[in-house]
Automatic annotation (TrEMBL):
Recorded GO MF terms: transferase activity, transferring alkyl or aryl (other than methyl) groups
Transmembrane segments: 45-63, 84-104, 110-129, 136-153, 165-189, 210-229, 235-258, 270-291
Membrane topology designation: Multi-pass membrane protein
GO CC, one annotated term: membrane
Protein name stated in the entry: Prenyltransferase
Domain of life: Bacteria
Originating organism: candidate division WWE3 bacterium CG08_land_8_20_14_0_20_43_13
Amino acid sequence: MLKTVFGKIKPLIKAMRLEEQSIVLVSYLYGWLDSHSFVKQQLNRLVYSGVGLVFLSVVSFLVNEYIDAKDTDQFRQDKQPMSTINSTSFVATVAIFGILGIIIAARQGFFWAGIIMLLAGIAYSWPPLRTKNRSLWDFFTLAFLFIIIPYLIPYWLSKASILSINWLGLLFFLLLALASNLLAIVRDIEPDRQANLTTTGTVLGYKKTLILGALALGASLFLAGVMLYQKIGWWYYPTIPFALATLCIVSFCAGSRFETKRIAFYCRKAIKVGVKITYLIIAYQLAALALI
């Protein structure tokens, strides 16, 4: 019986893509570090708020997987997790995570930010708005959803001045995260194109999307150099080699003459490695919080 139950919920758990929730936590922890507002007495608040953000992020991933199963995933060779989940299970899971996320947000003091994050996550995938299907809007929605909102939450909670934002650090990480996401966009270009979606990737094509990523990474490394020169935001420094490595991968793919399937293959591999590296960044961030 337990095996049967697990067999039914396993696709749903896979659809949550829990391993990819790390980007939200990295943004959130950089917010705490930059706001200089964390004290040990706020540890519970830091943990509960982080859990709330992850719950709201999970909703956006579930909705995306559910909608994609109806079009773009039909053109994938691998079996997608949402294709085996009925609507009732989907609605119930989304409702549970959404409600819990909003309750935590309300109790911790960022109710409206939580509402905005929930709506933005749904709008990214759900028709007719579906910003994922609008070139550049997909880009900006993800930046708002996974980088900007989580980063600003600690400022909201601690009432720290917005003027104290480390703009160099925020822009450095924002450009790095968006450029890294372009690898996922490149990976999905072919199925998105066959599903007649007008994402940034399908509009620009493989080469131009990768070139855009390389330019974003170059700009992020320039900002990193400014931070190093000014000796600020030392907690960002371990991320710089990651940005440099990503630039090498993107530039290699952009300059290669590989067929599109091979480029998509390399992008998938790079994404998996990148996700694991974010775990190390989170560990470093937590250590940095203990030191400041």
